[in-house]
Specification:
single chain, 328 residues, mainly alpha, 2 domains, two-stranded antiparallel ribbon, 13 helices, 4 strands, globular
Amino acid sequence: MSSNFIKIDEKYSGQEAPGSPAAGPQATLAAGATAEPQVFPPPNGAARYDTPVESGSGQRGRKRPGRVPRWVKQVAVQLSAIAVLIGIWWAIAAAEVWPPLLLPGPQDVFQQLFVITGYHDGIRGYSNYFLQEHLWYSMSRLLQGVAYAIVLGVPVGILLAVVTPLKWIFGPAIDFLRNLPPLAYFSLLVIWFGIDDTPKVALLFLAAFPPVVIATADAVRSVPGERVNAVRMLGANRFQTILHVTVPSVMPEVMTGIRLATGIAFTTVVAAETINGIPGIGGMVSDAQRYNATDVVMLGIIVIGLCGLAIDTLIRLADRLLVPWRGH
């Protein structure tokens, strides 16, 4: 013990102990006191101080400019494409490549929007109905037909997937109906149900029914058996298995079938309203075609297309809300 103390004393002999007041600044720093900000070498070898860098002192203090959201870019590109198409349309119409009776300009079609949505020269809209009224009647027929197709198509699809004899009996009939164009049996529906709204709703129902049935049946048959067996082994009863396994598994395919069925039914609106279709957007287009009112026909086509996009957007929104576990 004494020899060790002798060596320590010899080490600091002739100088002050570190940390003592008389040892000076070098001894104080060696003892661990920090009089100024310390310098830490980063991995790249350059010195870095522990004090923050001022925002205006160098490149590191500057903030990166905010990035434009992707949806803003998408909307900008889509609006630019629409503007280019309208410009091409206006240029062709102004050059009178075809007569105005065959190809009216955008300004003529846009003018018809104000004519049909209000009073013009004492005339109320088109055929005594405003454009919004024509659209309302068409959408009500469409919603009725699609609603009946969903209410009946989903149970029928489940039965066809579960009961094999029913699939053998009604499966070919569903495929036969799916491959028929709507106008092929619309005349028969008019003979059976008359010329009111009943044949129109029936036509839209028959157009939307096969996609819902086929999508539902395929979804039920594709439910993984391992998943069902796993929850049954964990003690789930039949109702819990259906609620927590079968329904979440079939919902994505069912929503896809509903989306396809709605699109097919929407494209059938004009065909459904060719006979006594006024009021109705399809009836308006069909009636304007008889009188060579090309501007009204083009306006009706544009309105039908915009409504189709709006309905498809609503269905996709409902898909995100009802089936959040599916990737979009």
